[in-house]
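Hey, resending since the last one bounced:
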Amino acid sequence: MQLQRPPLRDVRSESVTGVTVVCVLIDSGNSQPDADLVAGVPPSDNDRLEAIRVYADRAMRYCATAFLRETDDNRELMQAYMSIYASILALLDRDALDDRSMMSGREEIIQQYVEQARSDPYEPGNCSFCGERPVAAWFEGPSFRTFVRSSAEVRAEGAWLACGICLGLVDANDREQLVVRGVERLSRRDRDEGRQRSPREEAWMQQMTRDQQEKLFWGPRQD
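The structure tokens again:
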């Protein structure tokens, strides 16, 4: 029986500054995405609350940084988003659950996150090679020959992100090790989902990762 090659997806997501971030993933090829959820252990109430808190915290850091970087019109939109996420955090962490306590806590939380963003701005995204954080370099498209050190400095419409380790590998032109790190990113996801790939699938995954890095990153650098 011939195994089907897992398809690739070229994922492009927007950062705080509106820069298109390039990230390559290999589709899991799982035709029953809910199977693991049914068979797995459901999360506890505490797990759910912690997941909500982590999500709201990340969203608040993102919006607070965007708030300081945006124009007045867009600041109103960021303020609205912050009010929603700060309300969630207030309900999770305040001593009382009534509306007055929530609203007063919300305003305090917004100010805390805005002040934090002034000194420690949130940098969105993960390394486009390996998926790790924090990001150390934003290679500016379309050629990806030069990079800046923060998303606020990006002037191009697209960027390829690199963590510190992958940035060093790019400088050394160590393409094979970058492929290894890209494959490990996908292998981590497989382990998290309890999936095992055959040797043939692993070989395909490695070749596809190599091909996509060559096409999307190294190719434009040589044009």
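DSSP finds seven helices and five strands in the chain.

Sorry for the duplicate.
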